[in-house]
Amino acid sequence: MDHTHIEQRLLKRIVGALLVGGCLLLGTMAAQADDHEASQDTWLPTLVTETPQEGFALAVTLSQKAVATTQTDAETRKALRPEYAEDPDSLIAVSHVIATHFQTIAAANDYWRE
Question: Which of 11, 49, 93, 94 is deepest in the core (most CB within 10 A)?
Answer without folding.
Answer: 94
